[in-house]
Amino acid sequence: MQLLNADDYRAAARRHLPKGLFEYIDRGTEAELAIADIRRSLDNIRFRPSVLTGHAGSNMTTSLFDRTYCSPLIIAPTALAGLVSHDGETKLARVASKLGIPFCVSTQSVTSIDDIRKGAPEAELWLQLYVWRNRDLTWGLLDRAQKAGVSTLVITADTPLSPKRDYNQRNGFSVPFVPSLRGVWDVATRPKWLCSVMLRYLMTSGMPTYAHYLAEFKTAITRAAIAEDVKIESAISWADIAEIQKRWSGRIIIKGVLSVDDAIRARDMGIDGIVVSSHGGRNLDVALAPADVLPEIVDAVGAEMLVMADSGIRRGSDALKYLALGCRAVMVGRLPLYGLAAGGEQGALDILTMLIDEMHSNLVFAGAKDIDALRTAGIA
C-alpha cells in the first residue's frame, strides 16, 4: 500500500505494532479531551493567501540559537521509540542528521544517549530531561549527556507524575514488560514486530527497558529497591531549574509552558527557550491547547528568548499554523514514530520529508516566500 499522508502511516503503524504499544504512543489520557481540543484549535485556523506574488518556491531556512537549519522542525523526544523499531532512537538521530535538523533524545529511551551518539556521530543531539527523585542519578545523566556532545537540554516541566491512561492497564502494557496472558497474546499476534524488534533485543541486549535507568532496574530481584530513585520528581520547582543551570554548560529549554507568567519567569531566569506544549494531549486532559495561548506568550517573551511549540501536528499546514502564530520552530513527535513503525529508518525519513514538502507547498499556495511573510500576512 502506498503511504501518502499521516493517516496512511498511522494505519500502517497500527497494523504493525502490538495494540498496547500502538495505543501507548497514539492515544491521550483520561477522556482524551485534550487531543480533540488540540485538533479543534488547529483546524479553526485559516490563512489569508496572497495571489499573483510571483513566488514559485518557498524558503523555510530558520536560525535557532547559533545555527541555521533548512527547516524549522525538531524531532521531539518520545519514550520507547526503540520499541517501535529496533534501535529506533538511533535511527531517528540518523534521519535528523540527513534532514539537517536536531533530534531530542528522551530520558525514557530504549537506547542510551552514549550509544545513540556512537550510532549517529554527525547528528545534533538534544536531551529531554525528567528530573528523578534521586538527584545524584539525574546529575549523572547530565554528565553523560555532556560527554556525548549534547548541545541543548530540554526539561519537561509538565509531567509531575504518571498520567492516568486506562488503556495501558487494559492492554497490560508496562515498562519493564511484565508478562501476562493478554500481553503475550498481543505480541504473538504481531509476528513481524516480534521477530524484527523484540527477539532482536532478547538475543543481544536482553529485555528492552529505559536505557538511562540504573542497571539494577532491569533485574526483577532489585527493581523494587531502586524504583523510587527513578520516579519522576512530583515536586520539581524553579529551584531545581536554578540548580540545573549551575550544572549544565549548554543551552536550556523548558518544555510544557502554557502560561504567560511561566514564560516570563523562565525568561527572567535566563532560560534560553521554551516549548509551548500540552504534551500532545497525553498529560492534563483539561489543559489549554497550545495554539490558543501561543500568540500571547510570543508577544510577552518572543523577542528575548526562543519560543517553540508542539502537539497534534499531522500535516505541514499544522506546523505552519504554529509558526504563523509566532513560534520559531516546531517539535514533531508521533509522526516519526508512525514512520518508524511503517518502514523503519526510511519510513521515518519519508514521513518527515512528506511533512516538509507539505509545508513548502502550503507556503506557495499562501503566496508567502518564507515563514516571515506568512506571519506578516497573518491568519484569517
UniProtKB/TrEMBL annotation:
GO terms for biological process: aerobic respiration. FMN binds at residues 77-79, 106, 128, 130, 156, 255, 277, 310-314, 333-334. CDD domains: alpha_hydroxyacid_oxid_FMN. Its cofactor is FMN. SUPFAM superfamilies: FMN-linked oxidoreductases. The active site is at residue 279. Glyoxylate binds at residues 24, 165, 279, 282. Keywords: Flavoprotein, FMN, Oxidoreductase. Residues 1-380 form the FMN hydroxy acid dehydrogenase domain. GO terms for cellular component: plasma membrane. InterPro entries: Aldolase_TIM (IPR013785), Alpha-hydoxy_acid_DH_FMN (IPR012133), FMN-dep_DH (IPR000262), FMN_HAD (IPR037396). The keyword Oxidoreductase applies. The keyword Ubl conjugation does not apply. GO terms for molecular function: FMN binding; L-lactate dehydrogenase (NAD+) activity. Belongs to the FMN-dependent alpha-hydroxy acid dehydrogenase family. This is Lactate dehydrogenase. It comes from Thalassospira profundimaris.
